[in-house]
Amino acid sequence: AAGVIQSPRHLIKEKRETATLKCYPIPRHDTVYWYQQGPGQDPQFLISFYEKMQSDKGSIPDRFSAQQFSDYHSELNMSSLELGDSALYFCASSLEGQGDYEQYFGPGTRLTVT
Amino acid sequence: TQLLEQSPQFLSIQEGENLTVYCNSSSVFSSLQWYRQEPGEGPVLLVTVVTGGEVKKLKRLTFQFGDARKDSSLHITAAQPGDTGLYLCAGATGGSNDYKLSFGAGTTVTVRA
Lengths: 114, 113
Hints:
The complex is a heterodimer.
Chain A: E1 5-7, E2 10-13, E3 19-24, E4 31-37, E5 44-50, E6 53-57, E7 64-68, E8 74-78, E9 87-95, E10 100-105, E11 109-113
Parallel strand pairs in A: 2-11
Antiparallel strand pairs in A: 1-3, 3-8, 4-5, 4-9, 5-6, 7-8, 9-10, 9-11
Chain B: E1 5-7, E2 10-14, E3 19-24, E4 31-37, E5 44-49, E6 55-58, E7 61-65, E8 71-76, E9 85-93, E10 100-103, E11 107-112
Parallel strand pairs in B: 2-11
Antiparallel strand pairs in B: 1-3, 3-8, 4-5, 4-9, 6-7, 7-8, 9-10, 9-11
């Protein structure tokens, strides 16, 4: 079965640069969630989209923005990168429009800021 | 502050023994999900429990949701080395079309052969 696809899998950036992470949800899934997982920590919710509209916002810095496109893929844009942004970034998708709220996670993007 | 408290943080047992991981909170959740995560990879969904008092079984794994939907447990019977990994519980909060997950800190399980 198709899973959540994230790209790139690894990304190295310097401080103050920008980064764009992409997420392709499971086909027919209408909801996308972004999570950030620091070293040795549990995933922290950043932001979510349902049917291309932002549905909730968590601990996402103002330097970050995200959107969901007409084909349901989502992009997380990160600007003015800081060393502390180094983490694993996960995207998860679900089919909440039909009451199925189980979230399936992608393999993640490991962002390293130097 | 962790919304979900997981215990123990680390668990090391011999192959064939049983183990239980607990996930507790003072908050009520719409549902609670258990994931297993390998280093550097995404969490893999094991089970979702929705109804208070619900018990679900997945081979040697038994999951229970508390009657008040505030806590859950994962019990592994006759653990095998392949069960080694990080187990995360996650509670879903929010309204319709918005079920963000709050994770516990995780339990690292090591099963020795």
